Amino acid sequence: MLITATAVAVLAQTDSCSSQTSAASEADLVSMAGCSTFSGTLTISGPSITSITLNWASLTGTLKVASNRHLEVLSLEGLKSSTGTITLFNNTILSSVKMPNVTSLNVLEIITAPNLRKLSLPQIESVGTLKAEDTGFDNSGPVPWTDLRKAGHLGLSNNKALKSIEIPHLGSVSSHLVVSANGLMEGGGEGSALLASNLSTCSNCTFRHLTELDLSNLVSVGSALALAETNLKSVKMAKLKSVGQTLSIASNNQLANVTFPELGTIGGALQVANNSILTQIDGFPKLTEIGGVLDIRGAITNATWPAIKSVQGGLTVMSSTHFDCTTLANVKAGTRGKVQCQEMSKSAQPSSNRNGNSSDADSSAGSTSMHRGSALAALILLSGLALMF
């Protein structure tokens, strides 16, 4: 039986490849480029590689593209789904990643790609992990993944030119949503906007350096919610009903208003600390239970929790200005831990630990027993960021 070269090529395109191999040149990729399904491990790293084209329809293995100093284009145009891992690391002149037909990804990590201005995923609906760190994303293309509906971990960090992140149909994040240090160009830039108006559930949310935040349909946070070092003027989460662990709002120098009209329970600590111009805390009208410490610090003149019934971890209020501690009588009555309230304090700084319990050595020690600063406390509470990046 005669088999032509064309027939061999067609057969090759239907093969499943499962080898563990590496490629240092474009010629090394020929034998694997036509696989329909790749289930092995392929590491691509070579000084002369400028373009990579892989015609896979499915990836169940691992593709690692690392330290290719002349790589400009990665094309996976045939890829429709991946239950494997794609890692792009330290490809400094990479400017184009093509995956126009992929609908689901297990893991996609892009780290150190300063010339990659956009990541077009027009068909993407779900991701297990999507991380982009130190890229050139600049909103010149469809960085908003308009069809993305659910994610496990979604992390966007240190993308200095990225000023707006729009994910209009994202409904759930089952692990971490981390947005930090985007839009901070050297010599200017205040951060980025995060617009995820359809998001209803998130396990762990960590936000830093934001200029705008739209989570108008967020209903529940399974673990922690932290906002730190933002340029937000107000925070309103109109539908949020519960936070499983810590809610931390710290070191937001332009923040003047905080509103959580439907929030009923917080499983861990509630910390509102070192927000320079925030003087009134009256945006928690339905909050009944705090499982950890209630820790309030800053230039606070008034704070009310009209519905509070239980504070399990203690109460600490440290105000740098005049504050009438008697207005907290109902909160004190429901507090099972230590109670400390001071006005005109020189150390109105946060002191909650990772578990949401009070870390004050003694309530009579005054401000001298406080931790060294709000920045440290905020970093501790931003555990999602520390663990995932």
From TrEMBL:
GO CC terms in record: cell surface; fungal-type cell wall; plasma membrane
Compositional bias ranges of the Low complexity kind: 351-368
Localization, UniProt: Cell envelope
GO biological process, one term: fungal-type cell wall organization
Name of the protein this chain belongs to: Uncharacterized protein
Keywords assigned: Glycoprotein, Signal
Residue span of region Disordered: 343-368
